[in-house]
Amino acid sequence: MTETVKKIAVMTSGGDAPGMNAAIRSVVRTSAYYRTECIGIYRGYQGLIEGDFTPLTARSVNNIIQKGGTMLKSARSKEFMTKEGRQIAYENLKEKGIEGLVVIGGDGSFTGGVVFNQEYDFPVIGIPGTIDNDIYGTSHTLGYDTALNTAMDAIDKIRDTASSHSRLFFVEVMGRDAGFIALNAGVGAGAEEILIPEEDLGLERMLESLKKSKRSGKSSSIVVVAEGDKSGKNVYELANYVEENLEEYEVRVSVLGHMQRGGSPTCFDRVLASRLGVKAVELLIDGKTNLMVGLQNNEVVATDLEKAIKGINNIDMDLLRVSDIMTT
Ligand code: ATP
Known about the structure:
The protein is of the alpha/beta class. 42% of the residues lie in helices and 18% in strands. Strand 7 (193-195), helix 7 and strand 8 form a beta-alpha-beta unit. The mean pLDDT is 94. The structure holds adenosine-5'-triphosphate (ATP). Adenosine-5'-triphosphate (ATP) binds at residues 13-15, 45, 76-77, 80-81, 105-109, 111-112, 115, 130.
């Protein structure tokens, strides 16, 4: 390790995710360990443009590992999408003597980082923080495990009322482009059907499967629906469709929404955040740039940022088969 980098900065950008605070803590403490100064940037790229900076020491991040959200706040910045905005951002970094940037966020935030690096040759390392788990180059993004467990716990609770009243519940979980939360929380909570963006189950097949479930003696059913499922109907339209076609069912809808983003991160997310933060800082100190740190086969690895943005994190479709077998 060359240890020539004397000052770096860290920010959280895009949608917040549980574990972001744990990642900030790790970046700050790893910097302190290597005697590199660390500056926190509030509100992502918008704060970078506005010069909304704060020095962070090892003690500034006491007692945040267990907290949801992000102490540095997050934002989406239209101004950073412009050349003029990025020029101001660069001048702010230069003025403060900052030599590298850790961006904790999703693929949009990484795209901003790559564009910035191409224009100003400024070192950028990404840490994947999004509950959707839709980033190539890591088996888990920060916040995914926590969101998954939050969704599963909520479905368990809905199951209690579904079985007490012999009802069919449609439960919508987050995931516009990826069904990781729906599929895994659905299998974990024993859902009768799971609708995800990666596969079009077909409405007829869903009706058949619900009829089969009723015939097999089940008095309640849960269908987990990802926001972006392929049926072409939203969760309320799906519920109406089933109610019209399966009169024996009393149907209800529950949309879990933003509660899936909040809460204290799981142990898995805290450990992941700690590991990724260490690697991110070590890469910057080593003079590396345009990389995303992630987890593969339980090893922390670096992936080219552009590959991470363009690649697809494929879902394990065999889990749908497992789910089918479990509903026998
Ligand atoms: P999430 O997965 O939660 O949506 P994200 O990081 O993908 O997180 P975005 O809103 O897509 O969130 O991106 C965050 C910010 O990154 C944007 O508000 C913008 O400031 C910056 N950004 C995204 N794309 C670009 C781009 N092409 N050029 C410059 N900046 C960009």
